[in-house]
Amino acid sequence: MTDIDYKDFVARLAVVGAGGQGSNLVNRLYSSRIKSATTIAVNTDAKHLNMIGADKKILIGKTTTKGMGAGGFPEVAAKAASADIEEIRDAIRGYDMIFLCAGMGGGTGTGSAPVIAKAAKEEGALVVAFVTYPFSLERSRKLKADWGIEQLGKNADTTIIIENDRILSYAPNLQMEKAFELIDSIAANAIKGISDTLTFPSLINLDFADVKSVMRNAGTAVINLGIGSGHDKVNKAIRSTLDHPLLEVGTSGGKNALIHVSGGASLTIEEATRIGGGVTENLDENANVIFGARLSPDAGDQIKVMSIITGVKPMLGKGSRLSGRSSNNLESNLDSLAGLDGF
Ligand SMILES: Nc1nc2c(ncn2[C@@H]2O[C@H](COP(=O)(O)OP(=O)(O)OP(=O)(O)O)[C@@H](O)[C@H]2O)c(=O)[nH]1
Ligand SMILES: [Mg+2]
């Protein structure tokens, strides 16, 4: 029998960040020394790219915007990305899955992400976009964001939307910078969790073919997080995931779900499976549910849950049902969700 190097059969993954927010997210993952995915930052803004750590950086619009940014105009950024599309293609070629990150509402991320998504799909990758939706106070940016999300809907397989406002509604006293950090940690954790569980041996491995079956041409999706510890931690984890207000949507129509569970050395397959069942109870009867679980040495007694539900329609910009509710508990939950090692 000939020896086969099974590493050759592991899915190849890359994270591409477009614009300021996307590049910041890439920087965050690069700094955390993510091993399961290549990091690529794309921007029209040379100065910002210089400050970012990434395996690869691409300045787009070298001949058009000349490294000075897109000035808030998505159409300028779309042209810049198209002008340098060959360089983008060279960088993203050969990956099975691309996580594409961008803040919607500015110029570069909004305009270039759909162009990058299209190229990545043409190169054969499964394209999962993680985008942020602007704060209400960024009024004029919402129209641009809506446009960007619509374009991504046509070009990416799945678009997971994280609304900046939701963070403020349950952690209202957070400074803008800290709010950004929290929002970015959610996407970074999700990406790292999925990548690591696809790539490294895990308590319950995620299989790329399964991820593809949930994420291929899946439309908009929502992500929710939960946490549980101490007595009854499994039920606590389930409840906090179901109550998580990052996106207010009914998940009963949800078509498919990817569930990721992580916990300390004592986490059992039975507990992970119970959580998977609990957080998907309300989904469509025929929903395709896949899940993976990882042991995380630093987690101690804590179990963390991430659920991505596809085929749901988010109600963007409608504020949160949690406004005005005491948020102490959620704030501390968020803090413990923020560490990158957790998933
Ligand atoms: N979560 C998070 N959101 C951010 C961050 N920076 C900006 N945003 C949000 O993302 C939107 C787009 O901002 P940027 O990513 O800076 O914009 P850009 O894509 O670089 O666009 P231009 O600079 O206009 O070319 C903003 O409206 C904010 O809502 C960040 O570091 N974290
Ligand atoms: Mg910028």
Describe this structure in words.
By secondary structure, this protein is of the alpha/beta class. It folds into 2 domains: 11-156, Tubulin/FtsZ, GTPase domain (Rossmann fold, 3-Layer(aba) Sandwich), CATH 3.40.50.1440; 223-338, 60s Ribosomal Protein L30, Chain: A (2-Layer Sandwich), CATH 3.30.1330. Helix content is 41%, strand content 21%. The chain has 12 helices and 10 strands. It has helices spanning 19-31, 46-51, 74-83, 85-92, 108-122, 139-155, 164-170, 176-199, 208-215, 233-243, 269-279, 328-338, and strands at 13-18, 38-43, 56-59, 97-103, 126-133, 158-163, 219-228, 256-263, 288-295, 303-310. A 10-stranded mixed beta sheet has the order 3-2-1-4-5-6-7-10-8-9, sandwiched between helices. The protein binds guanosine-5'-triphosphate (GTP) and magnesium ion. Magnesium ion binds at residues 19-20, 45, 48, 69, 106, 108.
